[in-house]
Amino acid sequence: MAFFAIAAGIGAAATVAGTVMSIQGQKNAAKAGEYAAEFNADQARKQAKYNEGIAQENMRRQRDNNRREIARRRATAARSGLAETGAVADSLIETGDRLQQDIDDIWERASKNSEMLENKASMGLWESRQATSASKYNIWGTALSGAAQTASLGYQAYQASGAGGPTPNPNQIAPLKALPPR
Fold it and tell me: CA angle at residue 56 from 53 to 59, to 5 degrees?
């Protein structure tokens, strides 16, 4: 009987230790997830700013190229003896509009990309908060499970020690006691 009590005690101690280690592991995993989400969100935001900076530089270069293209077309028309009126003026305006559309497209792509990165950063942070919340529930579940296992092992040790006496069977009929004489 003593062997079973000792084994149950060791089992209870191991259950408590395992529960504590599991809870600590879950806490550490939640913290690591939060850190990773914050780091990734920060990197996504930095990438968005970088992309916008590159787009602005590309737009500046495109504007310079556009000015040169318009100047080239004006010079070509002037060499041909055409005045900047009528069809020539309309052609230059149309070319300027088309070239400006290229610049607008550069910014729109960069803007959409930045917005996507910002949304990705926000979603990563939201997912991290949800995972942290779920981890807290897992921690409580682990603690309750460990407590239940420890209590069960403690009860088994109590039974094995004989301190609890025989366990009464609820289906067994109690013996009748003799009535005292009258």
Answer: 150
Residue by residue, what is the 3-state secondary structure of 6-42?
HHHHHHHHHHHHHHHHHHHHHHHHHHHHHHHHHHHHH
Domain ranges of the chain: 2-161
| Phi, psi torsion values for 73, nearest 5 degrees | -65, -40
- The helix/strand/coil state of 146 is helix
What does the pLDDT read at residue 104? 92
Cα distance between residue 124 and residue 132, in whole Å = 12
Kindly state the tokens that stand for 151: 């209590």
Mean pLDDT by 10 residues, the chain (182 residues): 71 85 87 88 92 92 90 85 80 88 92 92 89 86 86 78 60 65 70
